[in-house]
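INFO batch 0412 | record 1 of 1 | parsing
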Amino acid sequence: MIIGVFGLAHLDEAVAQTIKKAPRKEAAITKPDLIPSPGFCNAVNAVMRDAPNKYKNISGKQISAAFDQVLWQSKLRIPGADTPIIEFGAGLWTDFLCRLYISADRAAAFDIYGKYKDALTSCLTQRGYMGEESDQHRFWTVGGRSYRFRAITDDYAWDTSVPIITIRYDSTDYPPKKYYVDLAIWGLERN
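INFO prediction complete | emitting tokens
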């Protein structure tokens, strides 16, 4: 199992920092009463189908390159989210990342996190995924949350042939000024 340079306990934090640093404008993210947007599950499934190809079919323009990280815009968008990015990190993994929601209202952001978590649960349990709350990660916000979905095989082992999906609720800074909900679809190299 390749975890990458951050180690399993720091993956969600690394994803959040990558999204935060990505050179792109903040889009108008879907209004809370429209979450999740129509087509959300179909878009997530389309991204997951390209994971074995390291997201090459949906990779668009390269937007940044550093010593151990290259970022591309994704040609495939998650309805209601900002511009998604694809990260090729340290030559070891490729992840799809996007911000689903951002607000100065902590309660609203936490409510949106719950709606997306429920939508992902509905989408992914049909594909053999199980979800688990993860509190082992460091968060900027007291009460920050991360929920990870992994598929299981018939013998109840983790299925490493499909991507891991994580949804995260946290703040953009400390002390908190804005709260966000991010989606990460980790490439197969993370398994």
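INFO post-check: The mean pLDDT is 76.
INFO record closed
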